[in-house]
Design brief:
Length: about 700
C-alpha cells in the first residue's frame, strides 16, 4: 500500500459535484467506457466505425478554412495513411502535430471525403518503442475542469492505498458465484486487454455483477434494518372486535371478494400489534380498496381511537367523505370533513371536533395534517393514492399523533399511529422489492365480479367527428360520458383555457345534452355539486381535466374520451381509463391522439391499447421509462441505485434479498460492515 495522494481544495470541490466526498467514494466512481491503448493497429487494417490506436509520422499539417476553420493533418505508417481532423484546436496542438512528428493517435475512424479519417482523436508524441498501456484506459464520468488524467490518478491511488477486503462471507460468494470485491473493482478500473470491452460497457461482466449485487444488498439490508426498528416503536393495539365491521358488511349491497377478505385479514392482524403498521395496499383501479379502508377504520374506532383518512384531491376526498358517511351513519358514526378550501369558521369547527375527540373519523385532503389540527387519540392514518403525496407530507403524517421526539429511542409511553397507504398505481415487483421493501404490502389481485372489460380504441384526432357521433349515441342511450382534456404540463392557465373551450364547443355540439365541466381551478362547492350532479345522472357528458384521474367512482359512466392521449404517461392513462368499466355496461375508452407520434408516445399507446392489467402496464412502464421516472420527483427523497438496473437485474435483486436475510441472521458483523461500506455517507432514505 502507498500513501494517500493530496487533493487540492479546487479538485475536492469538483469531486463533490460528482458525488465523491470521501476517498472511499473514489473506488465506486466507476468508468463509463474504456479506450484500448494496449495495442497499435496498422493504418491499413483500421475499419471505419471502429476505435483504434495508430502510430505514425505527420506528413502534412495545415489549417483549412472551408467549410469552417479546421486543423487537418495526415498521419502515415508503413502500411498506409489517414487524416486527423480537429474543428476546435489550440495552437499547442497544432505545434504538437507539426510535420515530421512521431504521433500516437486513438479515435474512432470513419470514411470522410478524403478517405479514412479520425475527428478529434486523442494524440500524443510517442516514439515507436514507447511502451503501450498494460490495461484498458478507463473513461470516467467527470465534470468541467476535472481532467480524466487527474481523476484516473486519484482513483488509482485510492485503489492502491484503501483496504479492499471483502465484506461478505466466503460461503456466500461461493454459493452465488460472486467475484471478490477487490478483484472486481480492480478489474473495472484497470481491465487487462483480454477482457471483453463490450461486457464491461454493457455491465454484464462478472465484476459488474458483483458491484451491482453489493449495491442491491446494501439497499436490502438497510431496508431490513429500518423494518426492524419499526418493530421497536410503539403503536396502539387495535384488537379485532369486528362488531361494527360485521354490521357494515351485512348492510353492503355486495359481498367482499376473496382478495378483499385476504388483505383485510392482513390489516386486522397487523394493527392489533403494539408496533406501527406501515402497509401499502395495492389494488388496481376499481378493485375496491375504499371498503377495505373503511373496515380497517372501524377496527380502530371500536378500540376508542380516531382515524384520519386523507386523499390527494378535494374531489376524491369529498367522494370518500360522502361514501363513508353513507356507510357509517347506520352505525351511529359521523365523520368530519376537513379541507384547505373550507371557510375559516367551518375549518375551525371541524378541527375542534377532531381535537375534542367528538368525531372518530376525519376525512379530507392534506389539510388534515397541518400543524393547527391536533387529534385527541389518533390510532390509524389512511392515505389514499399515496404515490401522489410527497415525502414531506408522509413524514408529517407519521409524526401526527405522536407524543415524543422520534429521534430519541421511544419511551414505552410514546405511540404513533398505524399507517395504511393505498395505491392503484401498481408498483412493479422489482420496485416493490427494492424501494418499498421497508413497507409491508397487501395486494388486491382480483376485481369485483360482474365487470366487463373495457374496450380501448385508438383514434386519430382527424376522426373527431366519428368520436362525437359515438358520444351522441352513448348519451342518447342513457349512458354517461367523460371527456378528458389534454394535459398541458407547466401551463395550467393554458390547460384551463383549453378545458373551457372544449366545454363551450361540446355544449354547442350537443345542445340536446347536459354538458358539465370540472377542472382544478373550479370553486370547490361548484366542483362538488358538479360531481354530485354527474353521479346523480343529471349531467350526460362531463368535460374534465385530469383532476378526475384518481379515484372518482361513477358506475353509470361507460364511455371515456381522452384527448391528446399521446401526451400522457402510462400510469395516468390507466388511472383515467379506470374511471369507466365500473358498472355492468360494456365500457369503452377512446384514446384520441395527434400525429405525428414520437417513438415513446407510440410505444406507450401500444402498451395501454394491448393491456388492461395495471401490473403489466406498470412493468412495461418501468421498461419504457426506467425506475427514476416511475418513482417520480415526488419520491426524490429516495436515493437511486447507481449501478444496478431494476429493469434487467431482477434475478440479482432476488439473490440480494435472500442474502440480506441470511446475513442479518447468521453474519450480523458482515451485514454491518457492508452497510458501512455502501451506506456510510448516504442520507437515510428510509425514513419515509
Ligand atoms: P378503488 O380500489 O379503485 O379505490 P373503489 O373502492 O372505488 O375502488 O371501488 C370501486 C367500486 O366497486 C365502488 O363502486 C365499490 O363500491 C365497488 N365495490 C367494492 N367492492 C366490491 C365488491 N366486493 N363487489 C362489488 N362491488 C364492489
Ligand atoms: Mg380509490
Amino acid at each position: 500500500m502507498g500513501t494517500p495522494a493530496k487533493i487540492s481544495p479546487a479538485t475536492l470541490a469538483k469531486l463533490a459535484k460528482l458525488g465523491v466526498h470521501h476517498r472511499s467514494d473514489l473506488l465506486l466512481h466507476l468508468p463509463l467506457r474504456y479506450e484500448d491503448e494496449t495495442q497499435l493497429s496498422p493504418i491499413d487494417t483500421v475499419q471505419p466505425g471502429t476505435t483504434a490506436q495508430v502510430q505514425g509520422i505527420i506528413t502534412h499539417c495545415e489549417i483549412a478554412f472551408r467549410p469552417r476553420r479546421t486543423l487537418v493533418c495526415r498521419l502515415r505508417d508503413s502500411s498506409g495513411e489517414l487524416t486527423l481532423r480537429f474543428l476546435n484546436f489550440y495552437p499547442s496542438q497544432q505545434k504538437q502535430l507539426a510535420v515530421g512528428g512521431n504521433i500516437r493517435a486513438i479515435g474512432e475512424a470513419r470514411m470522410g471525403y478524403y478517405g479514412l479519417e479520425m475527428v478529434h482523436p486523442k494524440c500524443r508524441a510517442a516514439a515507436e518503442d514507447t511502451p503501450l498501456q498494460q490495461s484498458l484506459t478507463p473513461i470516467y464520468p467527470t465534470t468541467a475542469g476535472l481532467a480524466q488524467g487527474v481523476l484516473r490518478k486519484l482513483i488509482n491511488n485510492a485503489l492502491d492505498v484503501l483496504p479492499l477486503h471483502d465484506t461478505l462471507p466466503e460461503s456466500l460468494l461461493r454459493d452465488l458465484h460472486l467475484a471478490s470485491f477487490g478483484d472486481s473493482l480492480k478489474l473495472l478500473h484497470r481491465p487487462t486487454p483480454d477482457v471483453a470491452v463490450s461486457q464491461l460497457e454493457e455491465r454484464n461482466h462478472a465484476a459488474w455483477r458483483r458491484i451491482k449485487f453489493d449495491e442491491l444488498l446494501a439497499q436490502q439490508l438497510s431496508m431490513r434494518v429500518h423494518h426492524r426498528e419499526r418493530g421497536k416503536r410503539r403503536a396502539p393495539k387495535l384488537a379485532a372486535k369486528k362488531t361494527l365491521a360485521r354490521q357494515l358488511i351485512k348492510a353492503l349491497p355486495f359481498a367482499l371478494t376473496k382478495a378483499q377478505q385476504k388483505v383485510l385479514g392482513e390489516i386486522n392482524l397487523d394493527i392489533a400489534q403494539p408496533h406501527p403498521m406501515q402497509r401499502l395496499l395495492l389494488g388496481d383501479v376499481g378493485s375496491g380498496k375504499t371498503i377495505v379502508a373503511a373496515l380497517a377504520a372501524l377496527q380502530a374506532i371500536e378500540n376508542g381511537y380516531q382515524v384520519a383518512f386523507m386523499a390527494p384531491t378535494e374531489i376524491l376526498a369529498e367522494q370518500h367523505y360522502l361514501k363513508l358517511r353513507e356507510w357509517l351513519a347506520p352505525l351511529g358514526l359521523e365523520p368530519v370533513w376537513l379541507s384547505g378550501s373550507m371557510k375559516k369558521k367551518d375549518k375551525a369547527a371541524a378541527a375542534e371536533r377532531i381535537a375534542q375527540g367528538a368525531t372518530q373519523l376525519a376525512i379530507g385532503t392534506h389539510a388534515l395534517f397541518q400543524a393547527s389540527v391536533t387529534f385527541k387519540k389518533l390510532g390509524l392514518v389512511i392515505v389514499d393514492e399515496q404515490h401522489k403525496f410527497g415525502v414531506q407530507q408522509r413524514l408529517a403524517l407519521r409524526n401526527k399523533g405522536k407524543t415524543a421526539d422520534t429521534d430519541t429511542p421511544a419511551p414505552s409511553n410514546t405511540q404513533e399511529p398505524h399507517q395504511l397507504m393505498m395505491s392503484a398505481t401498481p408498483i412493479p415487483r422489482t420496485l416493490a422489492m427494492s424501494y418499498y421493501a421497508d413497507l409491508d404490502v397487501s395486494v388486491i389481485d382480483e376485481l369485483p365480479p360482474g365487470r366487463t372489460p373495457i374496450v380501448t380504441k385508438l383514434v386519430s384526432e382527424a376522426r373527431r367527428e366519428e368520436v362525437c357521433a359515438r358520444v351522441r349515441a352513448a348519451c342518447g342511450n342513457g349512458e354517461q360520458v367523460y371527456w378528458v382534456c389534454p394535459l398541458i404540463e407547466e401551463a395550467e392557465t393554458l390547460e384551463l383555457q383549453n378545458a373551457l373551450e372544449t366545454h363551450q364547443q361540446l355544449t354547442e355540439t350537443f345542445p340536446e345534452f347536459n354538458v358539465g365541466l370540472v377542472h382544478g381551478k373550479l370553486d370547490n362547492a361548484l366542483k362538488a355539486s358538479t360531481m354530485a350532479a354527474f353521479k346523480a345522472g343529471e349531467i350526460n357528458l362531463l368535460v374534465a381535466t385530469t383532476v378526475i384521474e384518481v379515484g372518482v367512482d361513477v358506475p353509470n359512466a361507460s364511455l371515456m374520451v381522452i384527448e391528446h392521449a399521446e401526451r400522457m404517461g402510462l400510469a395516468q392513462l390507466h388511472q383515467l381509463r379506470g374511471r369507466v368499466g365500473r358498472g355492468v355496461a360494456q365500457s369503452t375508452c377512446i384514446l384520441m391522439f395527434q400525429q405525428p407520434l414520437s417513438e415513446l408516445a407510440r410505444a406507450r399507446l401500444k402498451v395501454i391499447f394491448e393491456n388492461g392489467d395495471g401490473f403489466v402496464i406498470a412493468q412495461q412502464d418501468l421498461h419504457l421509462r426506467g425506475p427514476g421516472e416511475l418513482l417520480g420527483a415526488r419520491q426524490s427523497g429516495v436515493a437511486m441505485l447507481r449501478f444496478a438496473d431494476l429493469t434487467t437485474d431482477e434475478a440479482l435483486l432476488e439473490q440480494a434479498r435472500g442474502a440480506a436475510d441470511m446475513l442479518l441472521r447468521d453474519h450480523p458483523d458482515a451485514a454491518r460492515a457492508h452497510l458501512q461500506r455502501w451506506m456510510a455517507n448516504k442520507h437515510d432514505y428510509l425514513h419515509v
